[in-house]
Amino acid sequence: MANQSANKTVVVFPGDDASPEAMNAAMEVLRALSLPINYVEFPPGDQWVRGETDVRARAAIDASDATLFGSTSGKTTAITYLRWGKETYANVRPAKWSKGYRSPMANPDGIDFVIVRENLEDLYLGLEGPLETLEPLKLHSRILRRQLDTRQHGIYAIKVITERNTRRIADFACRLAQKRKRAGGKGKLTCTSKYNMLPAADGYFRQIVQETAAKYPEIRYEQFIVDDFARRLVASPHDLDVVVMPNLYGDILSDAAAGIIGGLGLAPSGCYGENYAYFESVHGTAPDIMGMGIINPSATILSAALMLEYLDFAEAGRRLEAAVRKVYSDGRVLTPDQGGRAKTADFAREVIANL
After folding, report:
1. pLDDT band at 50 (very low <50, low <70, confident <90, very high)
2. Which domains does the chain have, with CATH numbers?
3. Residue 57 carries which DSSP code?
4. Is residue 173 left, alpha or beta, with left meaning phi > 0 and alpha meaning psi from -120 to 50?
5. How far apart are the first and last CA of the chain?
6. Is the dihedral of CA 25, 266, 300, 293 positive or negative?
7. What is the per-residue pLDDT across 172-185, written as a single tens digit (0 to 9) for each?
8. At residue 4, does pLDDT exceed 60?
9. pLDDT per position as a tens digit, 320-340
10. Under a CB-based contact definition with an 8 Å cutoff, are residues 172 and 208 in contact?
11. Which DSSP string corresponds to 301-318?
């Protein structure tokens, strides 16, 4: 949790393309709550000055309690510092259906699970390069049963799974399952990775999660190979509670989870470290609808609700989430992606009316 002082400071990065339109709506709703929060707002990504703005952003983040981050296409560069600089190792992505969500499922009622994605390593360390540079290592392929031919023209990418980060994410997921069980949830942890084909790397991830889950006897534990889990995600999402997985799988499958409940416009997330957290929508920057005023701000607003809980404004966070869900239940003021005709600003005003 954040520190316990009464007044909080939140850095706001609007993001790129259409994302600032969603952030403006979210900020309008947040201000309507009249909480003791000081918002330090930065410009959209197209006004970002490499070097100069980066320095100011890092200083602001370090002096704040949390960050609310808009989607970026690479212009808003603060995301690297928020993730690796602040070691926000746990990416939490809820998938909870609500009445009015435009789900493609025949019976989405009751879908309520959370994907916990390891956020710092795996293939996302960017360890890539020409295949020929691996030649001095004389790598032997377990699958090919011979030495890797590095004379071929090609590219390599390195997957990294460390004990430290895996134990941290496993413990985080177990504690979340424990918390959800106390609130009436299933109390179940599901682990998934490609441990059949990658027994050293993904098998190591599974082993550590399994060992950690054994320390939480009140939680039920299960594990599935990731391709089998992908099928279960679509076929039986109601069975899921908390799901933990390595970085790449979590990035991909959390988008699939958003599709199950009704789309990326409904998918919030929070990225948590030991001493800091930032919150962002799962969707991209939507450049195709930039300036049209129709981007769905729900994911950004719901991410803000997660942020309020982190900042010890749990009741305000619950009010905010309930207001969003009431707007969908009523079904009168919805954005085009959810079958309505409302503008982004109209949706924000309707959320405020339901606070």
Report:
1. confident
2. 1-95+265-355 (3.40.718.10), 103-113+161-261 (3.40.50.2300), 123-158 (no CATH)
3. H
4. alpha
5. 25
6. negative
7. 999 999 999 999 99
8. no
9. 999 999 999 999 999 999 999
10. no
11. HHHHHHHHHHTT-HHHHH
